[in-house]
Amino acid sequence: MSIYDYKVLDAKGNEVDLADYRGKVLLIVNTATGCGFTPQYEGLEKLYKKYAEKGFEILDFPCNQFGNQAPGTDQEIMNFCQLRYKTSFKQFKKAEVNGENELPLYTFLKSQKGGVLGSKIKWNFTKFLVDRDGNVIERFAPTVTPEKLDAKIAAIL
Fold first, then answer.
1. Model confidence pLDDT, tens digit, residues 56-88
2. Which residue range forms the structural domain that includes residue 69?
3. What are the start-end ranges of the E strands in the chain?
4. Which residue in the list 8, 11, 28, 35 is annotated as catalytic?
């Protein structure tokens, strides 16, 4: 299996084949709108604006598993992000990233990069960096800000 074998639903309920992202550098993030890390949306948008034309995409998966910090519908979450942080990168349907109902994409991501504390996602804004060939090359803790990822993204673009 590779990342390109997965299909997910976007925030509007449309199926998206991750094979459509072949050849792109991806940053996959589980997010929340009511979290202490929520201001990272601003940094994520800056990275997206800076590198989108070079083949960089951010895949945003809102997740309500951590402290109920992503309440609301997919549309409400999308509206919040676009109005408050002017996000323009792709947002997907709210998903679970741990447990029996976890999104299969996250099962795969965690199998590739378990992280320091094991495979379980510990909190909102855990980030996975994927190269142009679909390899999951690094996992970042929520405390790693988007600004700290700039050089790593630039290096693989």
1. 999 999 999 999 999 999 999 999 999 999 999
2. 3-156
3. 7-9, 15-17, 25-31, 56-62, 90-91, 127-130, 136-140
4. 35
